[in-house]
Amino acid sequence: MDKIVSLSDEENIPELQKYLSTLTDDQLTNTITNSALKGKKVGTIIKGIFKGSPPSSTAGANRRLLLYQHCIPLCESGDLQTEVAADIIGLLMLETHTLSGPSLATLGSLFVDAIKVGKMSSGKSLELFPTVLTALAACEALSYGKGELSGEEYKKQLINSLCSSRWDPQCVIHLTTMFRDVPLSSEELQFVVEKVLRMFNKLDLQEIPPLVYQLLLLSAKGCKKQVLDGIVGYFKEQDARQEEEQKHGDLDLEVQSIPQDQLRHVEGTAILHIVFAIRLDHELAREFLKGFKVMYNITSYADLCPFSVALLLSVARIQRYEEQVFELLKGAIIKSFKDEQLQQGSKLLQDLLPGHCSVAQMILDTVQNSVFGWDHVTQGLVQLGFFLMDAFGPKPGPFGKTTEGSLAVARTPTQQACKLGGQVLLQGFKMHEPIRGEILEQVLNRLVTKTASPVSHFLDLFSDIVVSAPMILLESSSKVTETFDHLSYLPLATVQGLLKAVQPLLKVSMSLKDALILVLRKAMFSSQLDGRKSAVTGFLLLLKNFKVLGSLASSQCSQAISSSQIQVDVHSRYNSAANEAFCLEILSSLRRCLSQQADVRLMLYEGFFDVLRRNSQLASSIMQTLLSQLKRYYEPEQDLLPPVKLEPCITAHGDQVYLQEPLAHLLSCTVHCLMWLQNTRQSANPNGDDSDGDEEEEEGYRSDLHAILESMTRRMIKCELEDFELDKSAEFSMGSSVGVKNNIYAVLVMGVYEVLMEYNFIKANYSKRCFEEIIELFSRYHKLSEILKEKSGKGRVPSHKTPRSLFSMGIISTSITVLFRDNTQSREEALSVLRSNGEFVRYILSVVVQKIQQLDETGHTDGPDGQNADKTFRFLCDMTSVLMWRYTNIPSVVEEGGKKEKRSSLSHLCLEGLLRIFTTCQQRYPNKMAQLLSTMGWTSKNGTEQDDEGDVVEINYFYIRQFQRALFTQLSGGEEDFNSKEAQLLISILSVLSRQLKPSSQQFVQMITWTVKICKETSFEDSAFCKGLLSLLFNLHVLYKSPVGLLLELCQDIHSVLGDIDQDVEVEKQSNFAIVNMKTASTAALLVLSQVDRVLDEVDWLIARKKSQTASDKLATQTAGRQDPVEKAVTLQLGTLLTALSELVQTALLLGTCTVTLLRELTRTYTILTTLVKYYIQVCASQHGSLPARFEKLVKLSGSHLTPQCYSFITYAQVLAWFSLSSSVAKLLRETKAIPNLIFSIEQYEKYLITLSKKSKVNLMQYMKLSTSRDFRINAATLDAALQEQDDSQVVSASSTQEPKQKKRKQ
């Protein structure tokens, strides 16, 4: 050993060579091993050996090879110190380029073999392998087997062999690192990347992040998409396995592969690595986003998963990609919802494609997963949530009006996307402390700044946050207080929502309550009307929620929103005194409102009843206030008529007249409060042993009020309309101030009559005298109402809109029950007074319809309990059962009494009420439909009230059959007895109820069969009824099977009824559906065309899906004999549609909307045929498959049955337009450019057919006849004749027998 060192130091090369040649291989290797183990002079020895082994001599070259062959395993053995091994490898690397080709080849094989048997686990000597491979690639030629290979080829063989062998999991990371230094061709790189990605599953979970890091570095050479897809695919698979295990529980504990938290942490680290790589390598980012763009442009989201969503949201933190990422996610979300909607609405799509994968669910999963320390994702989630809520929130209606009330169910894709944004933010708020402040701040900022557009979705979110985490919110109460400062400038609806949402916080935070009161006091004196209204809203809310001790625990107070997490006794004894003082102070503030505008007073009157019900200790204060206010407008002189002073109720400003005091509402509020107090006092204290002082005071205002109301009733009955100056001669036009004043008076007087009717009804206790008074009051009300209707109808535009009735929902519900269902013997005589008055019964029913309509539109009704959802639903149930009983038990024939009236019959009103109730229930109470129906007196077969699901279906179907019977009765009479409006209502009800049936159920099939039967057998000439019936048929049919067959039959009927465009052709008489006749054919044609559009939507969607699959899956080969089910379905749908359209296109349709719509649908059909042809061009290019026979038939059908007819129809439409007496129709045809668009789409179709013919070697153009009517030359002779004829007579009859040769006048 020393000798080698000394000779090397002396630079005595010849001696060194001689000495080395005397040593055997074993001696040499022992020397190296010993010095390496001791860590002494090993570098010097190796240098010496290199010096004494010139690569030019065979012996020297062999010795060098021996040195390499010995040192590589030695370094891997793990016996050497790290520094020593590193030194040795470093020296070997320096001399690699001197090795001969065969030596390098031997070394390469040595490495590959060592890796195969797993001897490279420490990876130290792997640093040398790139140098060997690089040197190898530079060699000219190497002997390989019996022939020769270039060095580059040999290197390729080695890499190929290495990638197809088994790797020890421990050396995967080392090998990946090593390949970064190897010059690789793109093909070799692909081998390597595929191999590494295959190894992912063999590795321990903790080793994945470093491997991901190395792979990303390797991707700098290329294969970026493959690397990213592989990493995402791996985590997607792990997530799926994890989910599967959680679903099935830990059945087999040994197989429980990965703890969830560990997997999530590893995913988080991997995301960080990828984002870091993307920051440095913009090409990688481009590939990453490009992959998602392709995926979201197509219709499948198969590659999207919670991991990739999290990754996208992390990438969004890089500013230059933020906008792209959110646009991508927004597009994917809305597309996913739209696709889901499309699939749910079509049996064809449900059968062809398996379940839909929901992007929304993935995003919510990402929120759940982000708990595991994914701070880099949470910021993106917050941005995404607000992005969705801003983009898809409700939009302002016309003139900036907002639609009231948020619906219970998000139905449209945009509503669902907005709801998803809210869910993401709410979950994020609950889970991540750091982002809470930001979420809250942004929500409150939007409430304050978005005054022009609706903010109901942000109010809902804020309310959910308060309920889910009130204590957390109190930590940020300063932000809420800041928002209070803006209250007086916000729209009233926003203020109401905001105050309702913070209500639970006010009970536990004194500072918040004080801040609010200060703001409300200021708002009370605001110059803006809305500001003052906001103050009233706020004060009323406080009065409702701060109870004074001793208030009756009313069962009606169950509506208080208190959070389960708030455990503070607000109503403890020491609080109650403070509460009382506080409430009385607020009441004195509110009294000021009684001198303000009508709108402010109105809010106060509408709110007092709820306050009283929650806080009955305030009764004396409230009642005194109402009494003194009422006395201002009450005429105390008992002999004077009328009993109310109307003059002070109005005010004039210039020549404008305004309402100052909503007198009827004041009276209504007083009556409701009085009656409620009376009832509660009686039920709480039947023996009357109350404290004397209170009792006297209460008795005082009670008797005063009763006396006033009695006197008003008596005197209002005596009043004639002349007493109010409102007789028939009065002016009611809204153009003059006198007319406006009279209108206001009339509405006030009618309101007073209504309130008095309600008062007398409540206190009547079924006495005949009271009921007679009610009828007297009603006759006065009715007379005035008729005058108003008559006067307002005279104007050009009927300006009269029935004012909202002041009857409360409760009294209306009770009154229709007693009118129709009360059979108590003792009440018979009294009730007959009401029942015998037909106008009164009709009036009550019309109020029922009005109230339900208001509930449907706004989500609440006026009057007591109008805001209480549970009570309102109970009233709905009661009304439903009465209306249903009235409609089914009293036939309309009896009731009409033979006279034809223009007005709706009572049965018609009942039906209208039922329809509105059912639609309202579906919108506002979607889960209570069964409960509503079950109140109509239905009991299940075993005699008990229904509850389980089977019974729910039964009961629904039971009522469907009831309405079917009613419709059948309508149709079985003659056409002169047919009541079209009632039949239309019945169909609307059937369509609402049929939505509750499952399409797979037997009842649904029966429903369809019945509808088809009615369509086939009914021949009434009523287009509105036909429209309703066919719409119902289509809506049901599409959920049962594809409607193309049905469309074809209807098109044949329409053709048969309207005749052919060529008058010489006799159309074969067919009647599949009797509902299609001369009167209804145009309506039916428009409906059929709208269905055609729907079918084309589905076909288009399916083709797009197939195209994307072909693009992403080029290797898929098609078996020659069998056609793909989706392609088959598309071809069959289009085939039947073409046949149906060829019928319509030969039909002599009248010029107008129908013609233009048909031309538009034909254009669309050809566009979709072109898309299908393009798809087959793509298939032929990538798979060289033959065209399916069905597709060839479709092309043949289009050439023989549709294109020639289209050109004939174009000529027909232009001739009609030419001779049309109506210039608007011709203009419509011109402006919509329907004809040029159709011709263009036909030509595009033929152009791509030529391309496909060339690609597929099948002559598809043999089926196409080039049309002669494409000739756009002006036919001079025809033109002259036409102009001549026009000169002769200005009016040319459309049935002129002129040659229909000429084409467009202008082209």
The first-to-last residue Cα distance is: 102 Å
Structural class: mainly alpha
| Rg estimate, integer Å | 43 Å
Determine the strand fraction and express it as a percent band: under 5%
> What ranges have pLDDT less than 50 throughout 5 or more consecutive residues?
553-574, 941-946, 1114-1121, 1289-1307
Q: Spatial order of the strands in the main sheet? A: 1-2
Largest sheet: 2 strands, antiparallel
Overall geometric form: flat
Helix residue percentage = 55-70%
| Count of extended strands | 4
Overall average pLDDT: 82
Task: Note the total helix count.
Answer: 54
Written account of the structure:
- The protein has 1307 residues and is mostly helical.
- It is built from 54 helices and four strands.
- The strands form two sheets. Strands 1-2 form a two-stranded antiparallel sheet. Strands 3-4 form a two-stranded antiparallel sheet.
- Helix 7 runs parallel beside helix 9 (151-163).
- The radius of gyration is 43 Å and the shape is flat.
- The relative contact order is 0.03.
- Residues 553-574, 941-946, 1114-1121 and 1289-1307 have low confidence and may be disordered.
